[in-house]
Specification:
With 125 residues, this protein is an alpha/beta fold. The protein has 5 helices and 5 strands; from the N terminus they run αααβββαβαβ.
Length: 125
């Protein structure tokens, strides 16, 4: 018999080495959670902050139509819908709550808002 290693034994050892490396890579997150990773005590750098939702909310206006009159939001007084439409800037989204409004007032407000370059969404719940 010779003292040379058999090729099948070398292949098996190589397979085990690759398997151990794959398992260690897969469980790397677990090791850092247990404090076994060299970077376990370091803070992870934060990614770039996404756009703030408050900035998105500024471009959204809710208009409530009651009869032939309109109000912006909940606490403002009723006014003519033409005056409310004139205040809307291009690029904003106007949510028109139409549950208590006359159909012609809702349609006129929607057409006016779209004519000013704003987006109109009619909400009738």
């Amino acid at each position: 018999m010779s003292d040379r290693p058999r090729p099948s034994r070398a292949g098996f050892v190589a397979f085990l080495g690759v398997l151990v490396a794959l398992v260690a890579g897969y469980l790397n997150d677990c090791f850092s959670g247990l404090g076994l990773s060299p970077n376990a005590g370091q803070a992870v750098p934060a990614a770039a902050e996404p756009a703030k939702p408050a900035a998105k909310a500024e471009g959204r206006v809710r208009v409530v139509v009651q009869g032939e009159q309109c109000r912006v939001g909940e606490g403002s007084p009723l006014r003519p819908c033409d005056a409310v439409c004139a205040e809307q800037a291009a690029g904003t989204t106007v949510e028109i709550e139409a549950t208590a409004g006359a159909q012609r007032a809702v349609d006129a407000l929607r057409a006016c808002v779209q004519g000013r370059g704003a987006k109109a969404q009619v909400v009738s719940e």
